[in-house]
Design goal:
alpha+beta, Beta-clip-like, 3-stranded antiparallel β-sheet, 3 helices, globular, binds zinc ion
Length: about 130
């Protein structure tokens, strides 16, 4: 485990009102977000992540991560809001060019994340998705 996310609970409206900083709040349910405290808020996005979120709050390594390497999880594993998207330039071979809701992931990616157990439980529940 790398860290456990923490921070004040906020609504969708509060998360959306952050504008460009909307990537900081972590969606944990419909209309429920955690406005992440450091160090959780520093974890970046990648389409080929070296970390993921287990049990909705634990940021865990998916591979050995050498010191000095940026911690990156796939933001789409936490997103189901029909609202926020952002361009992605993570530079990985499988870069999708865009960060958007989990339901819009290519099936190969969503299946992999479900198998790894790193998809927010409200998304798994809502869409009744299985690895
Ligand atoms: Zn990318």
């Amino acid at each position: 485990m790398i860290c456990r996310f923490s921070g004040p609970m906020i609504s969708f409206a509060e998360a959306a009102s952050k504008g460009e900083k909307e990537c900081y709040p972590l969606q944990i349910d419909d209309n429920k977000y955690i406005d992440l405290d450091p160090p959780g808020c520093f974890a970046n996005h990648s389409c080929e992540p070296n970390a993921g979120i287990r049990a909705d709050l634990e940021l865990v390594a998916l591979t050995d991560i050498p010191a000095g390497t940026e911690i990156r999880y796939d933001y789409s594993t936490t997103m189901d809001e029909d609202y926020f998207t952002m361009p992605c330039r993570c530079g990985s071979e499988s870069c999708r060019g865009k960060v958007e809701d989990f339901k819009l992931l290519p099936p190969s990616a969503s299946k992999r994340y479900l198998t790894l157990g790193i998809v927010m439980s409200f998304i798994v529940r809502k869409h009744n998705v299985k690895p």
